[in-house]
Amino acid sequence: MALLERLYTNIYYLVAVVLFVIGFHTMLTHKNLIKKLMALNIMDTAIFLFFVAIGYRQGGQAPILVPGVEKFVNPIPSALILTGIVISVSFTAFALALVVLLYKHYGTLDSDEIIAIRGKKHV
Amino acid sequence: MSLFLQSPVLAVIIPLLFFVVIYMVERRSWRLRNALAVLAPLASFVFLASNYSRVLAGERVLIEFPAILPPLGMSFSVDYLSLLVGLVVSGVWFLVAVYSTEYMVKEHAKNRYYPFSTLTLAGTMGVVLSGDLFTLFLFFELMSLSAYVLVVHEETAEAMRAGYKYLVLTIIGGLALFFAIIAVFEIAGTVSFASGGFIAEASGLAVLAFYGFLIGFGIKAGIVPLHVWLPEAHPVAPSPASALLSGIMLKTGVYGLIRVVFNVFGHEVVRAGGLDTVLLGLAAVTIFLGSAVAIAQDDIKRRLAYSSVGQMGYILLGIGLLQERALIGAIFHIFAHAIMKATLFLSAGAIIYKTGKRRVSEWRGLGREMTVTMVSFTVAALSMIGIPPLVGFVSKWELALGSLDAGSWGFVILLLLSSLMNFIYYFPVIQNTLFGEQHAAKEVSPKTRELPLAMLAPIVFMALVIVFVDLFPQSGVLDLAKRAAQALFLVVK
Amino acid sequence: MFSISHAPILMVVTLLMTAFVVPLVRKNMRLAKGLFLGAGLIVVALAVLITLEVLQSGTMIYAVGEWSAPHGIELVVDAFAAYASLVVSVISFIIYWFIVFAPREVNYEAGYYALILLLSAAMHGIVMAGDIFNLFVFVEISSLAAVAIIAVKGTKESIEASFRYLMLSALGSGGLLFSIALLFMITGHLNMGYMRVALATTAGQYPLNLLTALAFMVIGLGVKSALFPLHIWLPDAHANAPTGSSALLSGLVVKVYVIAFMRIAYMLLGMDLFYILPLRQILLVLAALAIIAGSVFAIVQDNIKRLLAFSTVAQVGYIFLGFSLLTARAVEGAIWHILIHAIMKTLLFLAVGVVIQQSGYKKISQVHGLARRMPLTFACITLGALSMVGIPGTAGFISKLYLALGALDAGLVIFAVLILISSLLSAIYYFPLIITAYFGHDASPDVKEPSLAVRLPLVILSLAILFYGLMPSMLLPLVRQTALLITR
Amino acid sequence: MHDLILEVVNRLLLPFIQLFGMYILFHGHLSPGGGFSGGAVIGASLILYSLTFRFAKVKHRMDHDTSVFFEAAGALIYVGIGFVGLFFGYNYLTNRGVFPLGVPGQLWSSGMILVITLALGAKVSGTILSLFQELLEGGSDEHGTP
């Protein structure tokens, strides 16, 4: 029972870790570059969830100090994660641009094939 | 700034400057280039010689630049040993430079040879005149790396191979030295030479450092297990460069060892650590193997190179005995061997220059056409064998006496054995060339005549030195060697 | 009005603003180039001012927006930050110069300049940040810009390399962010000074969190700084980038992440904690592996730029080694090596880039006798290589000297020997290039030296190598102070 | 491709999306939201517009240069406004004491934050659109300004 209790109170962290592992696994096992990118985003999301969960309080509201708001979440993690999201978006956008170019040059999105093509050129 | 104008520093800086100047003017005028290349060692010689009276009065000239490369600092010093070795280096270098102006006419890439020869001189003078281990190391590397250019001068596949071997071993040696120096610095907090040494005891790290020095200097000096580059690198270089490599640059290795044994560790610590046994063992192997292998060589320059290995063993023996008279022999042999080997390489080079024949077996009867050259060769060879009153005899005599003083009969026998082997590999050459019949007269081109003066004069001059130094004790070489050895054994703690 | 205290933020802002303006004036390339160089020069001047100020009156703390710590964002300019931004600004200005005057290698030049300025701004931000999240943001900006300046070349190899770099870099960022989250959980702060104070009491309570955080930190910054087993992206990325980018990436960017790591170690963890945790041993082992493996991989390379890239892996190992040995002289060696390797590797990459541009030869086996056609360039390469090997009289000797002395101070003779072995290995991989170039026989007759303006940076860097090889006293006080910060 | 339903619905929706984006921008200092979220909404609306109507037509209205201009100008305003603090003798990016702060909770309050939010909105929407255009144009002159 204590274990369940503990799991429940840490549910956000738990989910974050599970998401992270899913992302990591996908990234390692899938050959498709787009899927790799999606996996990367899942991992990022997991970390964001983790970070936001640090500052979350059950039933808390947005931390804007107007009358009526008594219980609010810690604003710092949220603010940081906003930045994190921006960074993640830029990464993704840039990576997509590169993927487009890669497809143009190699005609495939399969990482193994790309390596094979590149390897042939070297020989 | 005035510090830089002190004469010992100038003896090092001038060749360095000349390197730059030669590099700049060589495309405009080859005459100026050659003149500068000859002038550089002469200037070094003069600047160093100007310290003669000061040093002989017992003063140790010391110039320090602590600002350069803290925490080690840089310093130059002149004492008896550096004076003797420095004068030998610059003097022989001057003669070889004169010789090379004529010899190199037939060679390619002269614009590379002259500046790098001068740069090597700067390195060598720096090694000899350094006042601490770090300065020594710095110039040692400068010398070794610029000498690489001389080794591979011919650019044949053989030369490149030999050069690469030389380069790798040089780097290994440099790193071993580097390790040893920082270990010394770690132990003692200083790297400046002090009479009697500054290492207190032969601790584990100190012994490790000693082996580092042994490897570093041993590679340069061609001590036997580390000599592998030498018989390949010396013969492939142009003859004047061979003379410099064999006659002079090997000496920097043993010079460094002398400094390490007497001015860094101190002979007492070396003896206490049992390190002299290592030196003696190596010396015995070096003497024996160097001489023995030389017999089997037919290529004259290879034979001379192996002979150098054996001769380095003598000097190492003189150091390892840790005995004053033996050290006199060793220091004197630095001078004697430099002169003898330079004469041998230059005259052998002259023959190759004239006839293109490198093999001893092809030299039959050449002495009739190039009599002066071959007589000089003979004088140097006899001196190598140890015939009195030539210089080679003096060093062997002192070494043998030193061995007796130390109670090591075995080394006397070894010296005699080595002399015998010297005889075996030099005498046939002399016999063949001077007295042999020309068995195939057609092969010798009819134009084989005596050498041009610029090549002949240095050879003859050195041959005369070999003959007369010992006959005129007032020349002071032996005296200087004695004083140097005494100073090294002086313990001031 | 503008007192010296604003200089730190002005450095970042100058570069950022120029980065945004340059694409707007892309129709007028002369103006764009002028702005590009001007910004670089201003930053060099500011860095010199900051350095003098820090040497005179100690650490500068700049609270952005008048919000002071723990809530606000601070720039903490201590001796280390001043030193690092001096190195970054000077070396990157030399590279700017080269990029502007060398033959162009990219299509969209103004964009390229903008990216490089952005990268420089981020690097200055990283070395000065006093707030770990701010540091993270700058790390991200620099990572993106670093990837972009590889991809701008537009060849398929460069795009493939930059994509791989991007993915690994993103993974590293994830790790870094995760570790920041964990550290924030333990300490409740983001300002590194406050975090250290909080850690003093809470580190014992949450050892697992702390260890996990540090593991992710090592992985995150390790990927970005190419610490040995995480270096796999580096050779391709650095070898396929345009010349200026290669120099910038190998000479500075990789090292800035090491600096970030060092700053986190002493500002956030405190060296006591660093010593207690197994971090030091792990880093020592990884650094040793990096030194050996980087050198061994470099030996088998024929492509010159790949060779240089692998050599960077080994050299980063030196910096980590010196830092984690933690004796005063070893740390000084590591700090020297940050500067000296920046000089050497920039010189080598620029010079090799010049060779490739002028002759089209990319491999060691192709450069036969090229030194006769390009004597100055190859003289510079030779000097750089000698310095890499650590020949005394060149700058590379200084850092090796200090590192080896530091290893002996720490009683770890094995690491001193390791440094020597690695020097030997670098000799083995650098000398064939030089020997081939000087002694080969079929020189291509139509290859020429580049213009004077392109040769100038090479000459300046070569002179710097000689100067620091013999007279390092000029920067010595700064290096000493920096080392004191870390080892106190 | 010409899809009537898509176009009509789009025409109807677009003003509301953009208005919402504007709302988020202007209330960035009062409620959850701000420069990035608002800019993203506006940028997304522009992408939607480009997707629905033919690309050439959109290009005529808002070409790549314009989006790049917004991108750079937004960032410049943000960076530039920090200097105002310097001119008044404060640190970079200072708000308090330099700008009128107003009454908390009202639209015109909190000094320069609103200006920054708007600049960021321009920057973000410009960036998103220019990235999209970049991808459409096939990255012929690749420059990935993040």
Description:
The complex is a heterotetramer of chains A (123), B (493), C (488) and D (146). Chain A is mostly helical and 123 residues long. Chain A has helices spanning 2-9, 11-29, 33-55, 75-106, 111-122. The longest helix of chain A is centred in the last third of the chain and has 32 residues, at 75-106. Chain A is elongated and about 65 Å long. With 488 residues, chain C is mainly α. Chain D has 146 residues and is mostly helical. Chain D contains five helices and no strands. Chain D has helices spanning 4-26, 35-52, 55-61, 64-87, 113-136. Chain D starts with a helix and ends in a 10-residue tail after the last helix. The model of chain D is unreliable at 140-146 (pLDDT under 50). The chains are: A mainly alpha (123), B mainly alpha (493), C mainly alpha (488), D mainly alpha (146). Chains in contact: A-C, A-D, B-C, C-D. Chains B and C meet through helix 6 and helix 7 of B and helix 16 and helix 17 of C.
List keywords for this structure.
heterotetramer, A: 123 residues, mainly alpha, 76% helix, B: 493 residues, two-stranded antiparallel sheet, 19 helices
Short overview:
The complex is a heterotetramer of chains A (123), B (493), C (488) and D (146). Chain C has 488 residues and is mainly α.
Computed CA radius of gyration of chain C, to the nearest angstrom: 21 Å
Question: How many H/I helical runs of chain C?
Answer: 19
Mean pLDDT of chain D: 81
Measured distance between first and last alpha carbons of chain D: 31 Å
Subunit organisation of the chains: heterotetramer
Number of strands of chain D: 0
User: Taking all residues together, what is the mean pLDDT of chain C?
Assistant: 90
Largest interface: B-C, 31 and 32 residues
Largest sheet of chain C: 2 strands, antiparallel
The H-and-E topology of chain D, N to C, reads as HHHHH
Shape of chain C: globular
Helix content of chain D: 55-70%
